[in-house]
Amino acid sequence: MRALLAVLVLLPAFGLAAQMAPTATAVTPPGWSWKTDAPAEPQRGGTGNVGTAKFEFTHMAPGWHVTMGPGGVLFPTTGRAEGRFVLEGEMIYFNDGADAAEYGVFVGGAGLDGLHASWTAFVMRPDGKAAVLRHEHGSTRALYEWTSVPGVSGRDSTGFARHRVSVRAEPDSVRFLVNGTRIGAWPRAALAVEGGYGFRIGRGANLHITNLDLTRRLAPFPAPRP
Q1: Is residue 220 part of a domain?
Q2: Residue 67 lies inside a defined structural domain of this protein
Q3: How many CA atoms lie within 13 A of 57 on its CB side?
Q4: Does the residue 160 lie in any domain?
Q5: What CA–CA distance (Å, rounded) separates 186 from 199?
Q6: pLDDT of 52
Q7: CA–CA separation, 190 vs 188, rounded Å?
Q8: For position 89, what pLDDT does the model report?
Q9: Which of left, alpha, beta for 74 (phi over 0: left; psi -120 to 50: alpha)?
Q10: Which domain holds residue 163?
Q11: pTM summary value
């Protein structure tokens, strides 16, 4: 079974920002919800200027455009990641000179609409570093500290940072990959990965997300190369 939330379309680098400019009628996508790190309301209009108490999350083919005030998680209101699965998203980060904001995907979501939300996120920064974060009991800690990923660069020649992040859950392990490069693996019993899923995006981030694919697999993933 495959839950396909968006189709990946490759865009030429030239004129990319113009192609992805939100329209004046942009609204939050139906069937999605969010939990921000600080009180914030969705802003309609697609201006990209949100301040610290608003954010924009708009449907824009291919995918979505997001501009955050405070950081937060964005997630579909139905569906769960469970069993043997892979969750993958591809993101293009625009901010100039703002390399501290994280962006990526989360799994293991629980209580996302309440005061006791919990999740496990695999995130990148535009400087090419990755981390695995666990949020529970109102605080976030690093399970895997921010580390440069071998063979994965930060911003490209266009000035954008483009990364494809993947979480692969097997019955006995969970693997985290960036652009196909594995950065680490944990015993499945050591991580909470079943439950809600979606995006984790940090404070002030401005990015386009081309796809979010959740795939249930019957066959095992190929064994990693030595």
Answers
A1: no
A2: yes
A3: 27
A4: yes
A5: 21
A6: 82
A7: 5
A8: 97
A9: beta
A10: 2-215
A11: 0.84
Q: Which of 107, 146, 141 shows the shortest CA–CA distance to 124?
A: 146
Residue that has been written with the tokens 């594995």 in this structure:
182
Contact 194, 81 (CB under 8 A): yes
Question: What percent of the chain clears pLDDT 90, i.e. is strictly above it?
Answer: 58
Burial code of 139-148, b = ≥16 C-beta within 10 A, e = fewer?
eeeebeebee
Cα–Cα distance between 200 and 85 in angstroms, integer?
A: 19
The tally of domains found in the chain comes to 1
Give the three-class secondary structure for 37: coil
Helix (H, G, I), strand (E, B) or coil at 17: helix
- The CATH code of the domain that includes 40 is 2.60.120.560
Q: Is 164 left (phi over 0), alpha (psi -120 to 50) or beta?
A: beta
- The answer to the question of residue 224 being in a domain is no
Cα separation of the two ends of the chain = 30
Task: Check if the beta carbon of residue 46 is closer than 8 Å to that of residue 21.
Answer: yes
